[in-house]
Amino acid sequence: MYLDLVKIQVTLDNFIYLFIYVLSAYKGQANLHVFEDWCGSSISQLKKNLHFPLYPHTRTTVKKIAVAPKWKNYGLRIFGFIHPYKDVKCILNLILNSTTMDIVCPVHLHGSEWTAPGEFSKFRSQTSKPVHLMSSRRYYFEVLHKQDERGSDHVEVGWRPFLPGLKYDVIDSADISLYTDESSLKMNSVRHIPQTLASHSLALQVNQRTDTHTADMLKPDPRDNYYKIPMIDQSRLENVLPSCVYSPTYVVKDFPIARYQGLQFVYLSYVYPNDFTRLTHMEKKNKCFYRESPVYLEKFGFYKYMKMDEEEDGQPVFFPKPDGLCAAGILITDKNSARSGSPEVQPTKVSEIPEGSDMAPQSRGLEEGEISEYSNEEAEARPHLSEEAINWQRTFSVNPVDFELLRSDWNDLRCNVSGNLQLAENEVIDVVSQYMERIYTLVRIVNVEKRRDSARGNRYLMELLLMEGGKRVVRLSDYIYLLLHRSRYEDGIESREGTLPSSHHTPSKNPPPSGSNTQTHTTTPWSTSWAKPLLCQPSMLEWRHDVMVHFVVPVKNQARWVQQFISDMELLHHETKDENFSVLIVDFQSDDMDVEQALKESTVPRYEYLRREGNFERSSGLQMGVDTIEDSHSIVFLCDLHIHFPHNILETIRKHCVEGRLAFAPIVMRLDCGSSPLDPDGFWEVNGFGLFGIYKSDFDKIGGMNTEEFKDRWGGEDWELLDRVLQNGLEVERLRLRNFYHYFHSKRGMWNIPIKRPSQG
Predict the structure, then answer these.
(1) DSSP state of 365
(2) What are the boundaries of the region Disordered (predicted)?
(3) Cβ contacts of residue 315 below 8 Å, gap of 6+?
C-alpha cells in the first residue's frame, strides 16, 4: 500500500470566518462525500476518479470525525468547520488505515502509513505543529481518505491541548458543523462544493496530464484527427473505377441461426497500418495473444522459439528441461516468463531441501552444524553438495516470428487483450498503387480496413491523404472491392440493382480485366474466376458523410454519469463543430437530478428528453428512444451511459454504417477498477454487442428491440438483436476503437434493487 499527501501550503488564518453564529441544524455534523467502488490505496488514485471531487456516489453527513464504514475500495471526503471549545494552543493528529489525509492544518503523510484504531503516536508524520485556536472563530477542515480492499477501514482525527501528559480526543459532534446543508439539493448541483488546493478539479486535470502510461494506444495516431482534413470532392471520383455488385459469400440472410449463435457469424476486419490496439501493457497478466497455453508458458516460457548454440566442448544444449528451467544467465525477452518457468538460481546460497518437500527455504529451521545465510562466519565446505555452474557466455539463435500471421478473422471470444488484425503492408501497397494510377498524388496512407472473402473478393475501406492540384491536402475515405470471383448471374443482378438509388459512381457493366484479353474460366457451376483480380467500385456501398447520428441512452438515478455524458457530448460538439448528431435520453423517473433541465442548459446541438414511468428496462428504453426518430434514413447508435468517446466517433460510426448493408458494433475497452482514460488498464469487451450503430430503416425492418422477452432484465438482449440483424442479410463490422473506453463504475442501486441497511455495530 502506497499513500501520499498533497500538502496545503496555507496558514490556518486563511480559513478563519469572522462570525460565530451557526444555524443549530448545522451543528453536530460534518459533510461526507463517498466515492464507491474505486480501487487503490492512495489519494493520487482517488484523484484519478472521473467524478472526484464534485460528483460523489453518495452525499451524507457524519456526527464526528471518526468513520469506519466496514467496506472496501472507496474514497471519502469529509469537510466542514471545527469550533474550538476554548481558546487553546492544540495539536491535531490523524489515525488511519490504508488511507491518507489532507487537512487545513497540514499533517504530512508520505504514502505508506497505516495504524490501528486509537494509535495516535505511531508516526511523526501523523501530528501537526501546535496551532493557536480561538473559541470565537470557526475553522474549515478537510479530510481525504482512500481505502483499498485490505485491512480494517477507519479514519479519525483527534486533538489535544499543547500541554504535557494530555491525551488525544476524537473531534466529536459538539465541536463540528456542516459546510452546507445538501439534503435538498440534486446530485448534479455542485456549485456549493468547496474546492481547496488539495481537491480542486482544475488542478487535478493539470496533474493528470503529467502522468505517463506505457499503453501504446495513448500515443498519437494520424487516424485520431483525420476527420479534420477537408474531404475530396466526391464528383472527382465518378467513373474512376468500374462498378460491380457487392455480394459477399459470408452474409447469412434467411439462414436459420440458433439463439445467440450470431456470434459465430461475425468476422473481424484487418487494419493497416498498426493502430496499436493490442494491449501489450496487460500481457504480464494475460498472454492469450500467443498460441501456447498458459500452463505451457508457465512451465517452459518461450524457449521453444530459441535454438541454443553449442557449447565450446561441442555438446549441444538441450533446453528447456521438462522438469524445470534454469532461467538465470539467459538473455530472454520475457523475464516474467523465465522466472515463472523455473526456480530462481541463487549460486551463493548453499541449502538442501529433500525432494518432494513443500517446505519453503525461508521457513526451514537451521539444521545442526548449518550456518545461517546472514552469518559472518565462513561455512565449511560440504563435499556432498555442489552448485550448478552458470554459463554467462551461452548464446542462441532465433528466427523472426510474426504472431499476427497466425491469427484468423474469426471473432475470438477467448482473448481480450489482442488488438485489431494486422493487414500485410505489401497487400496494401499493391491495392493502393492500382487505385492511385487513376486519381491524385498520394501523400499518405492513413488507414486501410479489409474484410476478407476468399470465395468472392476482398472489400477495402481506403483512407488516404491526397494532394489536390499541388495546392492542398484532401482526404479520401471510400470503399473499393477487389473482385476475385464473379457470379454467372452477376450481369442480371447488376442491371436490376442499377435501377435503385446508387452511390456517386455511375453504374456501368464490368469490362474485361484491364490489359488482358484472357477469357475467364469456370471454377464452379455458379461462378467464374477472373484471370486477373478486378479492382472495382461496389454498388450500393457508399457511406454518407453528413448523415444524422442519434445517441440513444436510457437512464435512471445516475446523476453523476448523466452529467458526465452530457459534458462529453458538449465536448464532442466543441471539438468537431459537427451539428449532425443528437442526444436522446430516456429517463425512468430519476429523482437525483433534473435531466431535462440539464439538457436545456447544455450546448449539445440537438436533444430529446423522454420520461418513462416504472422500473428501469434497457430494451424498452432504447426502443422508446428510437421510435421518436422520424428520419428513417438516419443512424441510431444504441449507447451506454458510462462511455468515454474519442473525438472521431461520429465519423467512425458513419463510415461503418451503410443502409441495407452494414451495421457497426465497435469493441470497447473496459477499464479496470481504479483506471482512467489516461491510465488505461483493462481489457477489450469482445463478447459485448450493446454498443451498436445501425440505420433506423434497418432497425425497424428487423423488428427493433425484443421488449417482451427482456422486459425486466437485461443481459443477452444485444446477442438476440445480433441474431436478427445477421438473419436479415446485414454485415456487422467489428473493430476495436482507439481511446474508446467503458468506465469502471459502481453497480449499487442500478438494478431497481432496494438497499439493505446494515446493522449497527
Answers:
(1) P
(2) 337-374, 495-526
(3) none
